[in-house]
Write a structure and sequence with these properties.
By secondary structure, the chain is mainly α. It has eight helices and no strands. The longest helix is centred in the N-terminal third of the chain and has 28 residues.
Length: 176
């Protein structure tokens, strides 16, 4: 596949649609935050970050659908996951102390979402494992189900297995 086939210029109409969508989402986000700030006694410091992250994620997601761009979709999922974590941490009984491993899990979630569109199954499955396993282990620790004396050795063994995989997966490089 040539570079011209891989990196196609985005048509002007799609760029325009993406830009208009971004402007509309930003205006709507500002209007919602303004209305909530004026009409309610909600603590805006807890609301602004998750709403802005959600707006950026929504803009990127809509742009990725318009332009059929899996990289932009991947980024959008990262922003949406971070937004969801912030919302849950601020407006539920579960806090950041328990939810922080979700930030490590975010690339795995984004890979699940984009794997089928990109067709790069092997790459995304490796990414899901690379970020998913440590995130699950750290979640067990953050919720107090397993202690650090189990999790740390498990993470070290996982890192060793990942290094072994990389070492054995190298095929005939030109450098010797």
């Amino acid at each position: 596949m040539t570079d011209e086939e891989t990196y196609k210029e985005i048509p002007r109409a799609k760029k325009l649609a993406s830009n208009i969508t971004a402007a509309v989402v930003l205006i709507a986000t500002g209007a919602v935050l303004f209305a909530l700030g004026m009409a309610t006694d909600i603590d805006m410091s807890k609301l602004i970050l998750p709403v802005i992250l959600a707006a950026i994620g929504l803009i990127l997601f809509i742009s990725s659908v318009i332009q059929y761009n899996t990289v932009t979709m991947y980024l959008s999922i990262l922003f949406l996951v971070c937004s969801a974590v912030s919302f849950v941490a601020h407006y539920s009984a579960v806090g950041y102390a328990e939810l922080w491993p979700t930030y490590i899990l975010a690339p795995a979630i984004a890979s699940v979402a984009t794997m089928f569109l990109s067709g790069e199954y092997k790459f995304h499955i490796r990414l899901i494992i690379l970020f998913g396993v440590p995130a699950v282990l750290l979640s067990l620790m953050s919720f107090g189900l397993v202690g650090m004396r189990i999790i740390i050795p498990a993470l070290i063994m996982f890192a060793g297995l990942a290094a072994l995989y990389v070492a054995l997966a190298v095929r005939g490089t030109t450098e010797e």
